[in-house]
Write a structure and sequence with these properties.
This protein has 178 residues and is mainly alpha-helical. 76% of the residues lie in helices and 0% in strands. The protein has 8 helices and no strands. Helix 2 crosses helix 3. The longest helix has 26 residues. The relative contact order is 0.11.
Length: 178
């Protein structure tokens, strides 16, 4: 892979790949390592086809690396407070004209949903992140993780049910979060 191609992939998809790594690992140091390893593997394989959704390919490398390494990471895993949403989302909040109270409630709801997603088992969390955060199709996820499409659909369905149940429970306890 030429240096120029690599720089273009990092520029175009690096932010998304890194964000995925943060969500997957829940730890900045591990995310940094996973991000670097993802691009190292991409360089070694030199199979990125610019016409076949390179972002999806890079995310699949990251997901596979994480699945291969998560046992090693589990015993070292630490909790970290990481802000997951990007600057554009903050600007959107201001543009919507929310009151300070509404904005505080919305931020708390966002953090609650992130916490609930992070509490999902790895198999479900990875699929949910790939589907919703990276906007990958069921087929792309199945191909990336080398599992059947039905398994992807099943994991998404089960994760959504678990999240729904937890959110209803949370709403009952604290009085908000629809």
């Amino acid at each position: 892979m030429k240096r120029e191609s690599l720089e273009n992939f990092i520029r175009d998809y690096g932010k998304d790949v890194y964000s995925f790594c943060l969500y997957a690992t829940k730890n900045k140091e591990h995310a940094d390592d996973l991000y670097q390893q993802t691009f190292l593997v991409a360089i070694e394989k030199d199979e990125i086809d610019e016409n076949q959704n390179p972002k999806s390919y890079l995310i699949s490398i990251a997901a596979n690396l994480w699945n291969n390494q998560k046992r090693k990471y589990i015993w070292r895993k630490k909790k970290a407070n990481v802000i997951y949403f990007q600057d554009e989302n903050l600007e959107q909040l201001a543009d919507e004209g929310l009151t300070v109270e509404d904005e505080a409630i919305r931020e708390d709801e966002i953090e609650t949903v992130k916490r609930l997603v992070n509490e999902l088992p790895d198999k479900m969390r990875i699929v949910i992140l790939m589907f919703y955060m990276e906007n990958m199709s069921v087929n792309e996820i199945a191909t990336a993780l080398k599992i059947p499409e039905g398994t992807v659909k099943s994991r998404i369905h089960e994760a959504k049910n678990r999240l729904r149940e937890r959110m209803i429970s949370y709403e009952g306890q604290y009085g908000y979060l629809a």
